């Protein structure tokens, strides 16, 4: 049982790390000479501009930012609740709240990545990009990590439900 708990703790910390990296790092959309994330876009690695209300479809960017931050907060809160519940609650009552928080984190990261997937065409046709001749590109590793974090948080949420019944 101790090995199972160690695996679950490591899995949860990995999920949180993926969420932090995908929320903070600048690689949601990359191309030749530019990269962008949910906070700013950079051309030639030095000319960085924050995404603000002058960009088209800024509401979608704000929704992505909010849900990614909420997902990260919920994942961290679920970890702290897990540690508290591990030592405070009796068997059979453990990890239900942790599972709920982790599944909510999963839902939030899925919403953020889905909005970005749906809106990336509109987000990257903004006139601000045309000034530098930015075109093309592909999804970056932060975007991929967001989807991996979705899978990890979903799996850990389910694992907490299963672990609730273990002795």
Q: State the end-to-end distance.
A: 8 Å
**CATH architecture heading:** Up-down Bundle
Helicity level, as a percent range? 55-70%
Global Rg: 19 Å
β-sheet strand percentage: 5-15%
Question: How does the overall form come out from the CA principal axes?
Answer: elongated
CATH topology call: Butyryl-CoA Dehydrogenase, subunit A, domain 3
Rounded mean pLDDT is 83
- Main sheet makeup: 5 strands, antiparallel
Q: Quickly count the helices.
A: 5
CATH level 1 class label: Mainly Alpha
> Which assembly state applies to the chains in this document?
single chain
- Unreliable runs, pLDDT <50, ≥5 residues? none
Look at the helices and sheets and give the structural class.
alpha+beta
**Using DSSP, what is the number of strands?**
5
Give the count of structural domains: 1
* Major beta sheet, strand line-up: 4-3-2-1-5
Helix and strand sequence: HEEEEHHHEH
Care to describe what's here?
InterPro entries: EMP-2 (IPR003933), PMP-22/EMP/MP20-like (IPR050579), PMP22/EMP/MP20/Claudin (IPR004031), PMP22_EMP_MP20 (IPR004032). The chain crosses the membrane at residues 63-83, 95-116, 141-163. Pfam families: PMP22_Claudin. It is found in: Apical cell membrane; Cytoplasm, Perinuclear region; Golgi apparatus membrane; Membrane raft. Keywords: Cell membrane, Cytoplasm, Golgi apparatus, Membrane, Nucleus, Signal, Transmembrane, Transmembrane helix. This protein has 167 residues and is α+β, with helices and mostly antiparallel strands. It has one domain (2-22, 53-163): Butyryl-CoA Dehydrogenase, subunit A, domain 3 (Up-down Bundle). It is built from five helices and five strands; from the N terminus they run αββββαααβα. It has a five-stranded antiparallel β-sheet with strand order 4-3-2-1-5. A hairpin with a 2-residue loop joins strand 1 and strand 2 (34-36). Helix 1 (2-24) packs antiparallel against helix 2 (58-88). The termini are close together. The relative contact order is 0.21.
């Amino acid at each position: 049982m101790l090995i199972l708990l160690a695996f679950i703790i490591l899995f949860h910390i990995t999920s949180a790390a993926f969420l932090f990296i995908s929320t903070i790092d600048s690689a949601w959309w990359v191309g030749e000479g530019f990269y962008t994330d949910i906070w700013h876009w950079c051309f030639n690695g030095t000319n960085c501009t924050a995404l603000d209300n002058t960009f088209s479809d800024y509401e979608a960017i704000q929704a992505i930012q909010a849900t990614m931050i909420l997902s990260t907060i919920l994942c961290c809160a679920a970890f702290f609740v897990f540690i508290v519940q591990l030592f405070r609650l009796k068997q059979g009552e453990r990890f239900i709240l942790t599972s709920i928080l982790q599944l909510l984190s999963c839902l939030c990261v899925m919403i953020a990545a889905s909005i970005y997937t749906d809106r990336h065409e509109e987000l990257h046709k903004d006139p601000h990009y045309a000034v530098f001749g930015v075109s093309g590109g592909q999804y970056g590793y932060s975007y991929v990590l967001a989807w991996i974090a979705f899978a990890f948080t979903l799996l850990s949420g389910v694992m907490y439900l299963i672990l609730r019944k273990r002795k």
